[in-house]
Amino acid sequence: MGGSKVLIVDDEKLMRISLESQLKKEGYHVRSVDNALEGLKMVKSEDFDVVVTDLRLPGMNGMELLKEIKKYNQEIVVVIMTAFGTLESAVSAIKDGAYDYIAKPFSTDELIIKLQRALHYKNTAAEINRLRGEIQAEFEFCNIVGNSESMKKVLEIVKSVSERDTTVLIRGESGTGKEKIAGAIHYHSGRKTGPFIRVSCAALNREILESELFGHEKGAFTGAIKMRRGRFELADGGSIFLDDVDDIPLDMQVKLLRVLQERTFERVGGEETLGVNVRVICATKKDLLERVKEGCFREDLFYRLNVVQIGIPPLRERKGDIPLLINYFLKKFVSQYEDALPDVSPEVEEVLVAYDWPGNVRELENVIEHAVAFSKSKGISLETLPEYLRKCDASTDLLSMDLYNKQSINLQDALTEVEKKLIQWAHQKTNGNQVKMAEILGIPRTTLRNRLVKLQSFDKPMP
């Protein structure tokens, strides 16, 4: 990996000059100094990929230099040079963050192999960090889109529960964004640097699911040719997201209950009891309490899972959020090279707000992706929508109500509010012409007059 920047810190002049010369021949950019303090100054003033330092140095030693470098920049890779008799110190240095050590005397070829490995490790770690950053960005709170009261409540609960290790049960229809909520909880918790492991319990049959969750020993069943770690083991130190938890068979629910209570389990076909430190987040499309009453779900497991429940409303019950979501998905799918987002025609917005969205937010996302693909920089028109939406009659949906988190409703107040909205709509459509208002509302003009007096909606004198 020629071209990489290497700093050598060694008080032996001949060794320092020899290494610098030979590494330069290999194409590395090399600097060298004879003490740790000077080395630390150079690390802070120039961008080095690797620091190769002797352990025994005058003043500040190599171990102290390692710690200071790691405090300053975790991404700089440090290789320790040490005499054969002090290998214990080298092992200690690795525990403190050194990538590797090389025992003196060594050949230049040995060091070059170590450097190549160190640089490969550095590039791989940088790529992992970049990907982790991209994944984490996907689960930022700003990606939970919605101004409706129900979505504000969801975000409020997510924020308050993230920092705790509380078990969370997320309930919502398919496509409402349960995984996004689970990810937001994980990536805003103290476990965010740990793994976020996802399992779809509905997608796997009983035997495969048990092995997926808890792992198996070699020879546990036909085809188990080697030991395999399960998802709970892989999630150690992080969070596990169990989607469609209601699909876990009854006999396996006992094992899940034990993990929740004791944080222990055995692999399939194994006797060793394994401990795990993991946060459990579950999701379901069904009413688990109903499943308990039907005898399909253990009551004790339900109460273990239902510590905090987050209910995500279907899109049809928060239609006021649809324009925000349209804009959010346009930003996601429109090329970064475009000057501006395409215009969405009023007819398109009317159709999208009127539609009932059985597939919820996921379906809307797919529709916007389809529309962007067919827009050809002409804006989002009815022609860019999938055929099934072009056939929709927007007028069939009069009102959308956000009822998901309502506990009770005063029917008379609700009817009055609906009536007021319809009369305001008719007033806007006809510019206040009462003859036309009565016509488009399908009621006699005298009835309309009575309604207007009752609601006291408008200040204009009656024509």
TrEMBL record:
GO molecular function, one term: sequence-specific DNA binding
Record's keyword terms, sorted: ATP-binding, Nucleotide-binding, Phosphoprotein, Transcription, Transcription regulation, Two-component regulatory system
Presence of keyword Glycoprotein: no
Residue ranges occupied by any Sigma-54 factor interaction domain in the UniProt entry: 144-373
Stretches assigned to the Response regulatory domain: 5-119
Entry keyword Zinc: no
Coiled coil: none
Modified residues (4-aspartylphosphate): D54
InterPro entries xrefs: AAA+_ATPase, AAA_lid_NorR, CheY-like_superfamily, Homeodomain-like_sf, HTH_Fis, P-loop_NTPase, Sig_transdc_resp-reg_receiver, Sigma_54_int
GO biological process, alphabetically ordered: phosphorelay signal transduction system; regulation of DNA-templated transcription
Any Pfam family: Sigma54_activat
PANTHER family in alphabetical order: C4-DICARBOXYLATE TRANSPORT TRANSCRIPTIONAL REGULATORY PROTEIN DCTD, TRANSCRIPTIONAL REGULATORY PROTEIN
Name used for this protein in its record: Fis family transcriptional regulator
The species this protein was found in: Candidatus Brocadia sapporoensis
Lineage summary: Bacteria, Pseudomonadati, Planctomycetota, Candidatus Brocadiia, Candidatus Brocadiales
